[in-house]
Amino acid sequence: MTEMVYGTALVHPGEPILPKWWRTLDRWSMTCVFALFAIGLLLGLAASPPLAEKNGLDPFHYVSRQAFFGCLAMVTMVAVSMMSTLMVRRLATLFFLVTLVALVLLPVFGTDFGKGATRWYSLGFASFQPSEFLKPVFIVTSAWLIAGGQEINGPPGKFYSFLLTLVVVGFLAMQPDFGQACLVLFGWGVVYFVAGAPMILLAGMAGAVVFAGLTAYSLSEHFARRIDGFLSAEVDPTTQLGYATNAIREGGYFGVGVGEGSVKWSLPDAHTDFIIAVAAEEYGLVMVLAIITLYAIFSVRCLHRLMKERDPFIRLAGTGLVAMFAMQAVINMGVAVRLLPAKGMTLPFVSNGGSSLIAGGIALGMLLAFTRQRPQDEMRDILLSRRGH
């Protein structure tokens, strides 16, 4: 009866790793990720050649880079999804410390590539954005601390995770990168809420975020410019938002035709932050709905599996990763249709960007590892084991 309700997986002694991984994996979720990556390559073929031509590069330079980093991300995702949850937790905690140090050193060794925010390390042949890699491992580390705090005589995990959140959000805001800071805070808030945080505390945090936003608006010209552009009654047609809005309007239901779009010649970030505008113009509402559906299927299936999970750490970490993944997609598409102010955030697995793709592969690899079917203890067994400690 337990197996019927909680979807447990039978244990086959001596079963090889690969068959066991394939049997316990949520194959529908993985298929959605591969489909998003394929759509990203298709849109990259349309969006990136104009930028390559402007920079004097081979027409498919950026597409080739996207294919390379994307394939590397897919391999990374599969490899991480094969790991045990214990191994995932240990590696995530170690990687969190490494990326946190990289984030702290950004003001000294980082570069802004002329975009007004110091977010990257230039490696010559490529660039590295620490915040992309920090987000998923931070969520897993926070979930571990909070889950540990729920144990009898456990450490004050919620307090420690809160302090870590303040540190991470503070350094992200210093770049400034308020979009990633809000995304990290949102992911942590979801984990904390699922762990049983009181509503009054979450309301207080929301008030603190509003106060911080007002302060940033007063002190940061970069932030104020984006907010003013978002609140303006009229959209300047020569800005990225103006071009994106017009492209979405022109696309209609079925688009203007493959290769016939014009927005890719005007938008410098057509292949990254505003890739959904290219999709809407050339393929229409049909393509946009297909992309949204893939994100929705992936998120809902992962949450459905996590609801059956009895391990508090897996449940918290998985929920936080799903929430962050889905929210990043919502933010990217919301910016393109002017529902949200510009954030400089990629569309997961669809936008071009090495750091985004590989970090996404790590994040979803961990999530697929957490949502694999595994034997679940009876609730009475869990309670007895806790009493024994």
From TrEMBL:
Entry's Gene Ontology BP terms: cell division; peptidoglycan biosynthetic process; regulation of cell shape
Membrane topology, as annotated: Multi-pass membrane protein
A GO term from the CC aspect: cell division site
EC number: 2.4.99.28
Reaction equations catalysed: [GlcNAc-(1->4)-Mur2Ac(oyl-L-Ala-gamma-D-Glu-L-Lys-D-Ala-D-Ala)](n)-di-trans,octa-cis-undecaprenyl diphosphate + beta-D-GlcNAc-(1->4)-Mur2Ac(oyl-L-Ala-gamma-D-Glu-L-Lys-D-Ala-D-Ala)-di-trans,octa-cis-undecaprenyl diphosphate = [GlcNAc-(1->4)-Mur2Ac(oyl-L-Ala-gamma-D-Glu-L-Lys-D-Ala-D-Ala)](n+1)-di-trans,octa-cis-undecaprenyl diphosphate + di-trans,octa-cis-undecaprenyl diphosphate + H(+)
Primary site of residence: membrane
Location relative to the cell: Membrane
The keyword Transmembrane helix appears for this protein: yes
Molecular function as annotated in GO: lipid-linked peptidoglycan transporter activity; peptidoglycan glycosyltransferase activity
Pfam families referenced in this protein's UniProt entry, alphabetically: FTSW_RODA_SPOVE (PF01098)
Sorted UniProt keywords: Cell cycle, Cell division, Cell shape, Glycosyltransferase, Membrane, Peptidoglycan synthesis, Transferase, Transmembrane, Transmembrane helix
Presence of the UniProt keyword Transmembrane helix in the record: yes
TM segment ranges: 28-47, 67-88, 94-113, 158-174, 181-214, 283-304, 316-337, 349-370
Family the UniProt entry places it in: Belongs to the SEDS family. FtsW subfamily.
Protein name: Probable peptidoglycan glycosyltransferase FtsW
Organism name: Litoreibacter albidus
Lineage, opening ranks: Bacteria, Pseudomonadati, Pseudomonadota, Alphaproteobacteria, Rhodobacterales
